[in-house]
Amino acid sequence: xxxxxxxxxxxxxxxxxxxxxxxxxxxxxxxxxxxxxxxxxxxxxxxxxxxxxxxxxxxxxxxxxxxxxxxxxxxxxxxxxxxxxxxxxxxxxxxxxxxxxxxxxxxxxxxxxxxxxxxxxxxxxxxxxxxxxxxxxxxxxxxxxxxxxxxxxxxxxxxxxxxxxxxxxxxxxxxxxxxxxxxxxxxxxxxxxxxxxxxxxxxxxxxxxxxxxxxxxxxxxxxxxxxxxxxxxxxxxxxxxxxxxxxxxxxxxxxxxxxxxxxxxxxxxxxxxxxxxxxxxxxxxxxxxxxxxxxxxxxxxxxxxxxxxxxxxxxxxxxxxxxxxxxxxxxxxxxxxxxxxxxxxxxxxxxxxxxxxxxxxxxxxxxxxxxxxxxxxxxxxxxxxxxxxxxxxxxxxxxxxxxxxxxxxxxxxx
Length: 414
Hints:
- It is a single chain.
- The longest helix has 33 residues, at 106-138.
- α1 packs parallel to α6.
- This protein has one domain (5-251, 337-398).
- Residues 1-7 and 402-414 have low confidence and may be disordered.
- The chain is built from 17 helices and no strands.
- By secondary structure, it is mainly alpha-helical.
- The chain is 68% helix and 0% strand.
- Its main location: membrane.
- One of its GO terms (molecular function) is ligase activity.
- The chain crosses the membrane at residues 12-45, 57-76, 82-99, 111-132, 152-172, 179-194, 200-216, 223-242, 329-349, 361-380.
């Protein structure tokens, strides 16, 4: 499956990067071990090169981290802000570590996606086995969908969907695919649909269409991608029409009265779906921003939860206490103010512009996933999200400058 460059340090490094991303699936213990190994490796390259480097492309991450640290001086909850900074330390350390490593060559960047894909499919297989065992006991088909399918290691289906979408888009757009890649793509497609995240499924389709439209691909590649999308769409629509949990989720959303969310002052007996809950949290965020003197500084990193819980009590939905805003843009603006929101915007737009200029479709895919995901998840308020975001951001910028797998007639450019 992998090419013969097994003795090449660049090849081994690509496998390590893929395993690092895969280590986020089991949880913090393994990912922390991988982070330590990443740090040890960076020390080795520092000694070997006799200098410490820092890639200027990582400056947006550093600025965001430094502003979060500064919020300690005005936070309304010092204890939570300290905890938040300890989780956000990856924004500082990972770019610094990756800066010391050699550039990943374009023929090896694909190994990262293949390794991550294998980790995901192993997890998928184990999850399906567990789901079948539970189904054999109570005949509840829900075990094969959404959060029930990602219960092992107490994962959230949204986060696993993000990893799957990232790996899937990378696998689909490999320049030279073999039979193993086609098998991986098929199972990743099935996994993504069963995880049932509406936002991530839509995002994956949208990104792939954008790649077809804006990146110059060969006729054979375009045909394969279009067929893959059609097969996925047919499978997805079939599940929608069958009596499945996926269909039930869509029916529940269609019954929701969205206008009511912005008019009522009590939701004691109201049933919230995923979208309506996020709309209520968005409404609370707007009210909080206007009433709580958020301004340019914000309340302090990770310090908004107690105040948010007060709003949940006010609207008579205490069952959602401890839930965050489920919107990274709102979360950042409340906690880090207008300046934090601007830094988050720069952190997303800068790599997007770079990816287009360099024809780096993998970086492009990653950034679009994050931009759309941040509307429905506070991804950077969870350690798993922080590690994935900073690591993927860093290695995709670190990959060889220029094209990764578009038409070879296009010249490499910085």
